[in-house]
Structures are given as structure tokens and as C-alpha cells.
Design goal:
With about 475 residues, the chain is an alpha+beta fold. The chain is about 30% helix and about 30% strand. The strands form 8 sheets. A 7-stranded mixed sheet has the order 3-11-12-18-15-14-13, sandwiched between helices. α2 crosses α9 and α3 packs across α8. The longest helix is centred in the N-terminal third of the chain and has 20 residues. The protein is globular and about 80 Å long. The N terminus is likely disordered. The structure holds glycyl-adenosine-5'-phosphate (GAP). The site of glycyl-adenosine-5'-phosphate has 21 residues, from β12, β15, β18 and α9.
Length: about 475
């Protein structure tokens, strides 16, 4: 367990702030991300994903699952409950220590994380009002407390889980028994986590409700450090394979004094967001701390029996723990760009384009009949939609000039556009009958492709 203590960075550069403003506005305008409960004024630190945001998020989670579970022999999945017995959180240490030190400003009543209080040499000051009348730091537990059942008393207290990992640890024995895996092996999970963050900020970056993609990779003690490096490298490859430039990814070796006491090594994988370099994922060697704690508290054996050495021991664990929402935000920030493209009259105009990796793009292909009042063009375009739909998320659009339709798709990152024109009908040249124009988003290059080859060609490009 680690508290969300990603380093405080210098204030955003104005370029970064302006870029972020454009990204947030695009996310709302095109249906990626909305403020939760917006019509009631919202609720700080909570976000809803719209029609495109949910597709992007699913593509990310599906790819993570594919790479971390399906393409490996040594990892199985699980899906645990969000509410668990309170004893889990006592054993894991969350009930006592999952907290941030917090300071109240008595002048403006702001509640601040202790590390946000500024000291310019004239004593500590409130960053909101400049006041110096501050309380001493107090611990503020980040877990959301709730009650299970009809009575609200001490005996019914539990918490919304602040990480998905604990469900994996407490199911370790069941999963070991049913999967019959041998060490080293892992258990993967994707799910919601909740933290009552004191200062949610930077759009979805620090939210109060978010999703994690976590792997607990169990091993013998002697393999821990080696596997820590192995997983760091695997995870870096993952980010590159979803379209995040290696140059914008950084590995921070968490110094001894900042690591959780039970961890023998932790890397933070960071990304250069427009608001600064911030953590995307933590890769931590957690030793045998978690399983030992649960064995001690529950009184149930969580040991592993090694058939070869005939020894029983508590496995160690290496944990790559990534944030879904942070990665979605990184994907959008990475993809956002502006360039120049000709409008329908050939005049150059600014084009907003999300250069998503095709694997991540919410819509894979848009299909356009050149004219909406030409029945045969429309019928052919709809046939193509039916042809592609079993394989990918396709969008049909017949309204407006073709240039505007391309532009609308560029703005949401659709990598391919298919246009059905008179040549498709064989009106100009019989050799071109049943071919379409395939336009690629980034280069804007167009090629003529036979309809019969379209599905195979696109499937290979979005895989
Ligand atoms: N099981 C280990 C664990 O939870 P963590 O560093 O606290 O470690 C892992 O969290 C990842 O979860 C972070 O790297 C981040 O991507 C994501 N995360 C944590 N707190 C978050 C928050 N408030 N909002 C969005 N994502 C968050």
C-alpha cells in the first residue's frame, strides 16, 4: 500500500495550462468526459465518461487484460467485491495508516494537504488566502467509511476499497487451489477504487472514484528484485504499445525514505502531462508483507507448498498497479494535436486531431456516402457498415460536406474513413466498381481499396 503522494511539481506553465483547457473542453464537447452530477453543480473529484470516453476506457482495459492475462500462461484474473470485511483493512494497515497529513486554515477555512502549505522563509502560509493561522497537521484517513446492513454502529462499519489489490491477497489461497499454478504466477484485476482525496485536481488525474488495473505477481523471495525490473520493462512496453511516446515516459526509482516500509524496491512510471510530470503507475516489490498480514490476522494459512523442495512458505509479490483514468487522460493528452488541413474549398484551416493509436481509438472507422440524397450511395455505405460492424466500432455519417465529416472524425481520433462515391458504383470506370476511398487520419492520404479487402485490412491495422 502506498499513499497517493505523487511529487508536487512546479506550477503549470501557461502553455500546459492552455493546452489542458483545450483538452478539457474537447472532452466535454465531443463526449469523452463530463463532470459527474453536472446539472446539480457537480461533485468535486468525480467524473462520468460519455459515449466516446467509455469506448476509449474499454479499449484500454481490454488491451491490458489481453497483454497481462490472455497472452500469458502465468496469470489468471479475478473480479472482487468493492466492499469487504473491515478486518481486511485492519490487516492491510489501511485503517491505521492510509492517510494524508492535513492542515486547516483558520482564516479562510481551507483544508489543505500539509505538503501544499507554503513557506517562503516568513513562516508557513495558506496558499489560498496567505493567512498564517494554521492548525497543526492532523491525519486524515482517505477511505470512504460506510455501514453494511440496517444498523449504523461500530460493528457494521466498513470502507469502499481504496485499492483493488487486497481482494487479490485475501483470495490468494482459493485461486491457487483452483488454478493449480506454480510460482511464479500472478492474479490480475481491474476495478473501481475510492479515495476521499483532500484536493482532487488536474481534471481526472486525482479523482475520488477511479479504476485501477493491478497485477499481484507472486514469487519466491530470491526472485523479487529481478521480477521488479522485469515488470518495470514490461509495463514501459505496454505504454509504448498504446501510443505513448517513450520520450514522455520516465522511471522514478522511489528513494528508500519515501517507500512503504515493507517494500524493497518501487518504481514510479511517470508521464509528462501538460500540468507536469506525474505518476501513471507504481511497480512495487511488496515482499511477503500483505499475505503475512492476512495470514496473521485471519488465522488461515496463506502458505505455498513447493512440490520440488517440499517447503512451505509465504510467497513474495511484485505489483504493477496502474490507474485506468490516469492512463486515459495520458492517452488523450498524448493524442491531442492541431495542424492545418484544407477545407472543402481548398482553404487551409486549423484541424484538431486526436492521434490515438488505432488500437485505442474509440471509433475505428467512419463510413460516409458522398451524398446523402443518392440512394445507391447510401445503400452501399450501409452495406459496408454491416460488413465491418462485427469486427469493430464503426460510425456512419451522411450529413454535411465530406471535408466537415472528416474533420469531425479527426477531432475524436477515428483512424480510418471510408467514402462511397460514384466510382464505387462503377459509373465512371467499371474497374473501380466496388472499391472505396480509404482515408488515413494522420497523413490524410487516400487509397482505393476493394470493399472485399476492407475488413481484413482494417482488422490488421487496429489489432
Ligand atoms: N495497490 C497499490 C496502489 O494502490 P497507488 O500508487 O496508491 O498504489 C496505484 O495507486 C495507481 O492508481 C496510481 O499509480 C494511479 O495511477 C492510480 N491512482 C491512485 N490514486 C488515484 C486517484 N486519486 N485518482 C486517479 N488515479 C489514482
Amino acid at each position: 500500500m502506498s499513499t497517493p503522494n505523487d511529487a508536487q511539481r512546479p506550477p503549470s506553465q501557461s502553455y500546459g495550462a492552455a493546452r489542458m483547457e483545450k483538452i478539457v473542453s474537447l472532452c466535454k464537447r465531443r463526449g469523452f468526459i463530463f463532470q459527474s452530477s453536472e446539472i446539480y453543480g457537480g461533485l468535486n473529484g468525480l467524473w462520468d465518461y460519455g459515449p466516446l470516453g467509455v469506448e476509449l476506457k474499454r479499449n484500454l482495459k481490454n488491451y491490458w487484460w489481453r497483454v497481462m492475462v490472455h497472452e500469458r500462461n502465468d496469470v489468471v484474473g479475478m473480479d472482487g467485491s468493492i466492499l469487504m470485511n473491515r478486518a481486511v483493512w485492519k490487516a492491510s494497515g489501511h485503517e491505521d495508516t492510509f492517510s494524508d497529513p492535513m492542515v486547516d486554515c483558520r482564516s479562510c477555512k481551507a483544508r489543505l494537504r500539509a505538503d501544499q502549505v507554503i513557506d517562503k522563509g516568513k513562516g508557513k502560509q495558506c496558499p489560498v488566502c496567505g493567512g498564517k493561522d494554521l492548525t497543526e497537521p492532523r491525519s486524515f484517513n482517505l477511505m470512504f467509511k460506510t455501514y453494511v446492513g440496517a444498523t449504523e454502529d461500530e460493528s457494521s462499519i466498513t470502507y469502499l476499497r481504496p485499492e483493488t489489490a487486497q481482494a487479490i491477497f485475501v483470495q490468494f489461497k482459493n485461486i491457487l487451489d483452483v488454478s493449480r499454478k506454480k510460482l511464479p504466477f500472478g492474479i490480475a484485476q481491474i476495478g473501481k477504487a475510492f479515495r476521499n482525496e483532500i484536493n482532487p485536481r488536474n481534471f481526472t488525474f486525482r479523482s475520488r472514484e477511479f479504476e485501477q488495473m493491478e497485477l499481484e505477481y507472486f514469487c519466491g523471495a530470491e526472485e523479487g528484485m529481478k521480477l521488479l525490473d522485469y515488470w518495470k520493462e514490461e509495463r514501459l512496453k505496454f505504454y509504448e504499445n498504446i501510443g505513448i511516446a517513450r520520450a514522455k515516459l520516465h522511471v522514478l526509482t522511489v528513494p528508500d525514505e519515501e517507500r512503504a516500509f515493507y517494500s524493497k524496491g518501487t518504481y514510479d512510471i511517470e508521464y509528462d502531462f501538460p500540468f507536469g510530470r506525474q505518476e501513471l503507475e507504481g511497480v512495487a516489490y511488496r515482499t511477503d508483507y500483505d499475505l503475512s498480514q492476512h495470514q496473521k490476522t485471519s488465522g488461515k494459512s496463506l502458505e505455498y507448498f513447493d512440490e520440488e523442495t517440499k517447503q512451505k512458505f509465504i510467497p513474495h509479490v511484485v505489483e504493477p498497479s496502474a490507474g485506468v483514468d490516469r492512463t486515459v487522460l495520458a492517452l488523450i493528452c498524448e493524442a491531442y494535436s492541431e495542424d492545418e488541413a484544407p477545407d472543402d474549398k481548398g482553404k487551409m484551416e486549423t484541424r484538431i486531431v486526436l492521434r490515438f493509436h488505432p488500437r485505442m481509438a474509440p471509433v475505428k472507422c467512419a463510413v460516409f456516402p458522398l451524398l446523402k440524397n443518392k440512394e445507391q450511395l447510401v445503400a452501399k455505405a450501409k452495406e459496408i457498415v454491416d460488413l465491418l460492424r462485427p469486427h469493430m466500432f464503426v460510425f456512419y455519417d451522411e450529413s454535411g460536406a465530406i471535408g466537415r465529416r472528416y474533420r469531425r472524425q479527426d477531432e475524436i481520433g477515428t483512424p480510418f474513413g471510408v467514402t462511397v462515391d460514384f466510382e464505387t458504383l462503377g459509373e465512371k470506370d467499371l474497374a473501380l466498381r466496388d472499391t472505396v476511398t480509404l482515408r488515413e487520419r494522420d497523413s490524410m492520404k487516400q487509397e482505393r481499396v476493394a470493399i472485399k479487402d476492407l475488413a481484413t485490412m482494417l482488422i490488421s491495422r487496429i489489432a
